[in-house]
């Protein structure tokens, strides 16, 4: 899903006054933010938690989220189907940030909607997506999802914060309502709690009485993040949280998100911005034509040995600051996916073996001919 771009978005983006305020007061110590927090917000504290943690699949504590065989397809008129997510499998450990990357239309947002129980009527699902406490997000009923999951166990940082916020109410009133709903705080404590919630996401208190349309893109994103954090959900899901922001704001937004991934919280960040993924992710999952085709440690993926899947390698090589070479051809239609590997038609390494769907290892590429495989597994 790509959020609608409205005239209001453009107006906000050029709202110099609000932007200047955002720049001037991101984490002002004078507003009650501790120096350490202010420091953390501005200094990109990219802590490599993967080194301290056992691999997600072998962790002794149950993963915050465990996805197995997750598929989503949409029934279309005339009996056709769109396979938006096919057989996704991954774990997400506490303290970990997994970036789900891939080109527009590959199924990232549909996967997120499945995890929130927000799929439309014409969706059919298979598989499981189990939270640490055993709730399966795919089979939970709407009452459970509404009362105990959304906001409380899964916090959503939306793709288009401006559209996600209620336009006719101030940020303060939206924070207070969510606090009342999720934490039970009542007046007279509510006002203070609202200000504390804003502060957690570095939303400047001086802007609390503004309406969403009076906020810059960066501040709207902070307001939406503040709302997502209120329920202290162990799983944060951010779908393209940096859409429409300039580079500096992208960096700051992802750094702030990273700051909220504490010891007992995990973040699934969906993005097609590979630089943002590199900046905050511990692991990367690459999606192509509805399937996760590679899962790798972010350091290995963005550094050495680099991506193993030819598509993932192509994605990186297409970046302007790398080789700037686009992948030839187009992804297949999700309503007419080929048998075997969906990337084979565009892949110079493809041969007969690629007529069968390659398995996805716990870490590595779903590919019959992964890049650099020869280096790691020399034949005798
Ligand atoms: N309700 C629906 N009915 C039919 N097809 C749908 C529906 N919702 C999404 N799709 C299709 O599912 C596919 C995956 O869409 P999705 O929004 O997950 O892509 P994405 O990877 O998030 O892309 P983007 O980067 O543009 O946000 C697309 O082909 C889309 O057209
Ligand atoms: Ni999307």
UniProtKB/TrEMBL annotation:
Q: Which SMART domains match?
A: AAA
| Annotated region described as Disordered, given as residue ranges | 1-45
A Pfam family matched in the record: oligo_HPY
What top-level class of enzyme does the UniProt entry assign?
translocase
Catalysis: reaction(s): Ni(2+)(out) + ATP + H2O = Ni(2+)(in) + ADP + phosphate + H(+)
User: Subunit structure of this entry?
Assistant: The complex is composed of two ATP-binding proteins (NikD and NikE), two transmembrane proteins (NikB and NikC) and a solute-binding protein (NikA).
Q: Which residues form a coiled coil?
A: none
Every copy of the ABC transporter domain together lies at 67-314
The species is: Streptomyces lasiicapitis
Could you tell me the membrane topology recorded for this protein? Peripheral membrane protein
List the Gene3D superfamilies: P-loop containing nucleotide triphosphate hydrolases
- Could you tell me what this protein is called? Nickel import system ATP-binding protein NikD
Spell out the family assignment given in the record's similarity comment: Belongs to the ABC transporter superfamily.
**GO molecular function list:** ATP binding
Location(s), subcellular: Cell membrane
Looking at the keywords, is Zinc present?
A: no
